[in-house]
Amino acid sequence: MQDGISAERAAAMIPDGASVMFGGFLGVGSPDRVIDALVARGARGLTLICNDTASPGRGVGKLIEAGCVAHVKASHIGTNPTTQKKMISGEIEVELVPQGTLAERIRAGGSGLGGVLTRTGVGTVVSEGKQVLEIDGESFLLEMPLRADFALLRAHEADHFGNLTYRLTAANFNPVMAFAADCVIAEPEEIVPVGVIPPDAVRTPGVLVHHLVRRPQ
Amino acid sequence: MQDGISAERAAAMIPDGASVMFGGFLGVGSPDRVIDALVARGARGLTLICNDTASPGRGVGKLIEAGCVAHVKASHIGTNPTTQKKMISGEIEVELVPQGTLAERIRAGGSGLGGVLTRTGVGTVVSEGKQVLEIDGESFLLEMPLRADFALLRAHEADHFGNLTYRLTAANFNPVMAFAADCVIAEPEEIVPVGVIPPDAVRTPGVLVHHLVRRPQ
Amino acid sequence: MEAKEVIARRVALELRDRTLVNLGIGLPTLVACYVPAEISVAFQSENGIIGFGEPPPDGLEDPYLTDAGGGYISALPGAAAFDSATSFALIRGGHLDMTVLGGLQVDSSGRLANWMVPGKLVPGMGGAMDLVAGAKRVIVAMQHTAKGQPKIVEALTLPPTAARRISLIVTELAVIEPTDEGLVLRERAPGVSVETVVASTGAKLLLDGDTPTMPIVSPERVAA
Amino acid sequence: MEAKEVIARRVALELRDRTLVNLGIGLPTLVACYVPAEISVAFQSENGIIGFGEPPPDGLEDPYLTDAGGGYISALPGAAAFDSATSFALIRGGHLDMTVLGGLQVDSSGRLANWMVPGKLVPGMGGAMDLVAGAKRVIVAMQHTAKGQPKIVEALTLPPTAARRISLIVTELAVIEPTDEGLVLRERAPGVSVETVVASTGAKLLLDGDTPTMPIVSPERVAA
Description:
The complex is a heterotetramer, with 2 copies of chain A and 2 copies of chain C. By secondary structure, chain A is an alpha/beta fold. Chain A has helices at residues 7-13, 32-41, 61-65, 81-89, 99-111, 174-177, and strands at residues 19-22, 46-49, 69-74, 93-96, 113-118, 132-135, 138-143, 148-159, 181-192, 211-212. Chains A and D meet through helix 5 of A and strand 3, strand 4 and helix 2 of D.
């Protein structure tokens, strides 16, 4: 693991137009300091991959409001009226993905699998334009793997190797996103020396993490 | 979680001819006391789903030697000459599955997925008789989900709800097998009251575990 | 008794001992208040926890411990936390014994629509499609009508949540079970006639002998 | 220097700083003894750990801490343990920078056979097929011949481990790189002539100018 970087440095690494996975569930477990820095640097044209768009002023909701976002792939945008307004006005394109399918598509993208075969979405608008496979007499939708240029994670502890832990429901999409991006940046609450996190407590192995965001100086 | 059961009781619950997943990697992380009890009760015709068949006198190797086994689905049998001998004599039927594919097939079986799409095995004997899908110009093998009648797990700690932890490399196939059987029996080193294992340390939620094997009296 | 309370109390009678249950946001969440005292249920929240309880006392909230609606919760002793992939492995792998969801429409084939109103409301499906496709039992807890219009209809006019037939509909007027033959009226609410139920329903209801009155878990049987 | 040591020392030069590496059982395991001092490599064992080291002192073995060959190992500070599904998500998801595997045969198209000899030896593929299909670089570390017969052949006679072309072959005689054009002889071992390599090889070797002598990491550069 290299030295910790500032949230501003992390935001500067992410170019306009990049696809970015954000951990978080209604803003819980979001990389909030990097989000603030992305807003501050005036990022534009981002593709967000995230469970939801939180609410105005919270989590990735700040990016929506600040006009940083061109595309959203999420399971739910109902808690953020701004996302809905911008979708209707055509400013933001939204792809809605069932929550479990979103998690599995990201996992497939990070695990080298060719796709996900799921019952979820069969017989609904989600299946439109997608291949349906009959397996053992049952229909399964073939959903494509998802990857991104960046994954921005919120962790509880990180050690100097980048090993991560998460806290309660703040884990959500963070662990699975750690596998699925070309560059993984984690924003931990605490940074501890190597050896402080026992091997069985590590939930994301440090080899997956490219940069740690350091605490404000 | 009901009261803990004895290893003998666990072995008695598993009828001859049942399909059984066994955690363990070369005997490390195997449910050894239930294995001994299965040998003692003279189980017959079992289908074993496990990474390997360990070695004679160790882990599931004991079941092979004692004549309990009719079928084996495993990634490796090279460390157990008895398995090889019985395979050649026709006493045991062996299906060899690449280790990562075995883990994913079990995960698919436990997660309601219709199959696994993997590069592993394409262009090898593993692909014989299986469907190959072209996805984005690349070939992926369609591998079927795996489930069993029983999963026998070795855990480190269990609480009275059946929440489980594992230790270092003794985790291996245990966590994924916990999802993939009709009846899941865990053999922990330690049984602790509810509340002793913190929520973030739980690696198998207790709702998946049907029976805990108690310590010898 | 308010409509929502009637519904929540009746749904609570569907809870079984030692099962894993997911309650949707809104009305279904109320079901947790009426768990019969003699049974023990583990509640799952799809954002990643099994074993949560009432909101914590004022000032003791943990910002990293919330339910799928974003509200603060408590963890009960024996709780287990996990990530989204594990959460949906539980939901889609058949490990969830029951889910209770709200509904916009249910049709005569038992299909549910509950995630969007084209041109009006496009919140997204969240975990609803996975829950309906994956849970062993799917209970729809909803008011019988909306703005005087029946929500139980011959054929959905809203986009379905899943192809699958749901298990049971519980409203403030009736309990209705979708079957191969169609929608069967199983129970009517106290003081509600079969005719009232039929008049408020937009799909054909089959009667199965006398229609008994809905039993509702009484206050004294509710867990403290 | 013994053949195995030559091979392990040369393979060690392929290690890059801050990478994740999986070493197969047997000869490849020796590579860990020759990691150049200036680089830091994380070793993965597919049974579920990153960051392990030498066997522990006598009597301090942990029965739940072993490598993929079943031998006792130590965990280094910063080690991470995980289950088999996670382990192979790392291997197949492109997170493993390099794997070093033994080989029975490699053919002119760069395909590897290393998991069975029909009718003789059927140990199973273990993780080999996943490693060859998934690692960014696949290095085959093997002796150049077996019982006097070439192991580098025009076309495999043994069942392939994967359809994919491996990255590099390192033997005690030579370093050979499979390319679109065929097998290119990149290096020869100290004191070994190109003619000797060609004579010991069952497939056509392409020469790319002078064939330099294999650099081998010297003892003083090895990490303590």
